[in-house]
Amino acid sequence: MDLNSSLYSILGIGGAFAKKLEKLEIFTLKDLIYHFPFRYDDFSKQTSALDAQIGEKVTLMGEVWSIKNVYTRFGKVLTQAIFNDGSSPITLTWFNQSWLTKQINSGDRLQVSGKIKKYKNKLSIVAPVWEKIASFDVSSYSTSDVSIQSLHTGRLVPVYPETFGLTSKWIRTKISRILPMFVDSIKDPLPDDVKNKMLTLNEALLKIHFPENWEDIDKARERLGFDELFFIQLFTQKIRRQWKNKRLVSPLKINMGKLKELVESLPFKLTSAQDKVLREIMDDLEQASPMNRLLQGEVGSGKTVVAAIISYLVFLNNLKVLYMAPTEILAFQHFDTFQRLLQPFGVEVGIYTGSRKYTKGKGRNVKGKDEKLHPDIIIGTHALLSEKLLAGDVGLVIIDEQQRFGVEQRSILRSKAKVPHFLTMTATPIPRTVALTLYGDLDLSIIYEMPKGRKLVKTFVVPSKKRADAYKFIEKKVMMGDQVYIITPLIEPSETLTTVKAAKEEFERLSKKVFVNLKLGLLHGRLKSKEKEEVLNKFKSKDLDILVSTSVVEVGVDVPNATIMVIEGAERFGLAQLHQLRGRVGRGEKESFALLFPGIEEPSLVSRLKNLEKNFNGLELAELDLKVRGSGEIFGTKQSGRFNLKIASLTDLPTLEKAKEAAHSVLQVDPTLDKYPLLKAQLADNQAAIMPD
Ligand code: ADP
Ligand code: MG
Predict the structure, then answer these.
(1) Ligand 1 center to 454 CA (angstroms)
(2) Architecture of 41-159 per CATH?
(3) Closest CA to ligand 1's atom 9
(4) Which CATH number, 3.40.50.300, 3.90.550.10, 1.10.3720.10, 1.50.10.10, labels domain 256-286+302-426?
(5) Helix, strand, or coil here: 182?
């Protein structure tokens, strides 16, 4: 039996409990041990009923004099006990727990914890936590430096994430039984010099669940939080090293003359930020080892142009380029852009998506067994990398807006002897600290400024009493020839059927009741790509005035004539995400607006949204999200899954730095980790969870 053994056999519990545990993502012994408390009730104050202050949280020890159920007129059950700790009898009351009379009998000695109250001149505790004294076999604990005298009372009592039918008390009881049995078999993977003055892993695990004081909790969290960040660092830095050691398909030369020609053909001058990242990328392209770079820049900052320019440079080396977009819509859009920019320079551009494959080039062959003609640059969706297109003459792979920043895609390449350069692009503003940690395997380039003349999108948080006015304003603008996006709320974390249903209902309501004379279209993620394309084309060609959509448009569509972005249920989105959404308007000459409708008008939510009225910097907004709502908000549900942080915080710079240096020094000494088998094993474990392959 080890830490990865299934919990059910060990606990001897049945299917019902198993299902509940699954809800908490607890399957194995280890999962249970790593199910950490999210807070503690301080019941450490042992006192007597007489000495206790009214309103104070205390623990009393005494005897049950009587206990009975009382049925109220409204069909509720109260369980009432008279309890005496030797100083004064007090009343204990529980609601709807009639079974307690079977568990507690008069004469039982109990320890109870809760808030002391006075009612009709009598002392009482409502809904106290309780346990029988000496219900606990202290002798079975092998590690005696943590005393577990009582479990649910009279101490700092851990409170756990719960689910229906699985209380903290239940979880606490199980952990108290299991942890002491296994804790000594958990080997500390940290080398001594990394661990330094921190607690050992065993100590930390015992203290996070059964602390004697607040300092224990701090120390346990310090160690366990460090581990989380340290293993992320170890993971990303190891990948980084492996990638750097790969052989490149073919070294490249930069043709500065041709580069200049192309840049001068553009209808605009590159911003200095574009210039800078272009230089960073070209530096990489000239190296003998493969590039692995993350290009970050807000929507509209000009990433696509940069991608097109470097694709051209690769083309000039007689190598091919694959460009992977997250959606078909975007693939087609980039296909157009690339054709427009590069066809005049003799570059053939192809498209490859689920619904359309245009990969026939004029003259060059794909190497491999089924030879077919292959254009110089192919733009496509996911299918792109899984196909034979990824032949030996591909010199550059570009991944645009990939949720997981190319981890999966790179793992396809990992098995190859020689790899192409790799560029990942994202409009998601990632605070620098976060990028350096979670994406420490990538080099980072940031386009920090927008092309000149871009107008700010005037943004307003609209209270519900102004909704009718807002609709009038929209109608007026449409009459003047403008177009509008209306984003419907994200009901669930990802675009589920519920979200789609809400979008359909809103579409119906708006078409029939609000904008009766206007032409509306509906777009959501469950439409077939042909249907999506149709709706979008209608919107582009002005056959539609208003596009009602789920947040799928976030990563798509460029319609300069659209000037108003309405976002319903705005409080459900992160600030950075809202910022990205409003970036869909303000792309043309006309003045543009973002109207944010909160679904709940709670002051704290509204004031958070109001940040958007004055702040137009995506990175700063992302930092705010990070502070207010944690990292999940930045990466969306899909991305936060890459690493699961239970304790560590991505705003904790000192620990981030410490973990980074520690991982670096370990890998410096021993890149393969063969000298640290425990680290290696743990890393492999984590890796399997992150990158199943
Ligand atoms: P991103 O991919 O970062 O969202 P794009 O490359 O699609 O941005 O650029 C957005 C728009 O801005 C495009 O219409 C593009 O032609 C234009 N653009 C790009 N770079 C510049 C620039 N330096 N000056 C003016 N307009 C630019
Ligand atoms: Mg783009």
Answers:
(1) 10
(2) Beta Barrel (2.40)
(3) 302
(4) 3.40.50.300
(5) helix
